[in-house]
Amino acid sequence: MKARQAALAAEDKKASEIVILDVALASGVADYFMICSAESERQVLAVQEHIDQALSEKGYRLMGLEGIEAGVWVLMDYGDVIVHIFKRGVREHYGLDRLWADTKRVPLRRTAASAPVSEPKRRPAKERAARQRG
């Protein structure tokens, strides 16, 4: 799903408060909104660039881009998915989360292929040596 791929790309750049809203029944504009927050203008732009790169690699075409100059609210239009990247205080000011509160939230579960690989837990060396001896 394109919106989930955008969310994972935003997560890669440490965006926070990432949500995907299913707005298909409530909006004639798109099927999904992906909304996330960033701590600074610089991070807003880094998230935008990474999402654009990740989605273009999957063959998705960016149809519109707004707000890049100010860097406090960037809107990326992918047709059926609209990506909103907000600087933290700006997100609260505009309140898209409240405006679309009655829409369904899509879970952000990672697939097994995209989940980070964690190292297995290992016992301390002394404990392993003691177990081997006896």
List keywords for this structure.
134 residues; alpha+beta; Beta Polymerase, domain 2; six-stranded mixed β-sheet; 5 helices; 6 strands; globular; disordered C terminus
3D architecture notes:
The protein is α+β, with helices and mostly antiparallel strands. Helices cover 36% and strands 24% of the residues. It has a six-stranded mixed beta sheet. A hairpin with a 3-residue loop joins strand 4 and strand 5. Helix 1 (2-12) crosses helix 2.
Order of helices and strands: HEEHEEEHHEH
**CATH class label:** Alpha Beta
Q: How many strands, which pairing sense, and closed or not: the largest β-sheet?
A: 6 strands, mixed
CATH architecture: 2-Layer Sandwich
Task: Report strand %.
Answer: 15-25%
Tally of structural domains: 1
Give the end-to-end Cα distance, rounded to a whole number of Å: 53 Å
Quick rundown:
Helix content is 36%, strand content 24%. It is an alpha+beta fold. Strand 4 and strand 5 (81-87) form a beta hairpin.
